């Protein structure tokens, strides 16, 4: 019997590489794909360049899906209110020289921001102005004499805030930011879709009340639009001494607030950006921060010497960016404005200024005892005592005048 059949087995390669490939213990597991980490700043950061829809000469730039152009009727109305507003501003400045106003902070050059801020709102929304928003208040329809009552020194506020839904003009920097957040939150809590718009200067963004107001509004999703008019100077302090950020609009991201920056001398862009910001707040998405790059053409107030901190060449360079001329050129090119319409609006502005001048030239009758009104809902004993002292002094003065 022969030997059993033995099947030949091929030789096995035993190189180190072959062993590594064959051994399950040395095989490297596949690296799982790293999940994408969401960008926490997505939707919060502003554009790197201010939004602009018109060139300085009024020619249009390409249309944008993110900021659709407002209706031409709204732009024509914006032009009308800007022209009337500038004439009001010039007249108010003249009244300070005539001694009819104690002080007046001009907003000439900022007409697009002043008018655009109120046009983006409904009549049921609230405005929280600074001392520089006199033009915005007249554009909102408030009696110009009532607007100037504060600056005349006759009263703390010349209008009833609850009637015109406009807070008193705020002289302390940034305190209106907290007030706007509180009112907007209260309106939202009661189920109303009211939006509050707070006007702010660039200097106010350095104040604690600005940060507290924005932070509160963000946490509680208060429907507030914080509208920063960056006119390059906080009285005499340039913007470079206020912030090292790329722009003031970047301050929103730290509080989780979406922000945008816009060419503040482009009326079309200002209204388009504010329309979006107001819609965001009204939809219950919380506050929105808008920074408008603009310029104050006049001194900080009539008491300011602007030559100490800026030269005439800088001011002159901004005249070529006039927001009224820019919008007028655009509307003319679209056939929405002609010589007759421009003349009619200019005539309306002159009549507005003349009526203001005549009314402001009348000496007001002021009751000294009104100083004690509206200090507290229920007067304190000390306030009552002070009021009685003044009443007694007035009575004594009348007796002396009668004896004379």
Please sum up the structure shown.
The protein has 404 residues and is of the alpha/beta class. Helices cover 42% and strands 8% of the residues.
- Net shape: globular
Give the neighbour order of strands across the main sheet: 1-2-3-7-6
Give the CA-CA distance, first to last residue: 163 Å
Helix content: 40-55%
Q: How do the helices and strands follow one another from N- to C-terminus?
A: HHHEHHHHEHEEEEHEHHHH
DSSP strand count: 7
Mean pLDDT: 92
Count of DSSP H/I helices: 13
What are the segments in which pLDDT stays under 50 over at least 5 consecutive residues? none
The SS-based structural class is alpha/beta
Strand content: 5-15%
Oligomer: single chain
Computed Rg:
31 Å
Report on the biggest sheet.
5 strands, parallel
Kindly describe this structure:
With about 400 residues, the chain is an alpha/beta fold. Helix content is about 40%, strand content about 10%. The strands form two sheets. It has a five-stranded parallel beta sheet with strand order 1-2-3-7-6, sandwiched between helices. Strands 4-5 form a two-stranded antiparallel sheet. Helix 8 (about 210-220) links the parallel strand 2 and strand 3. The radius of gyration is 31 Å and the shape is globular.
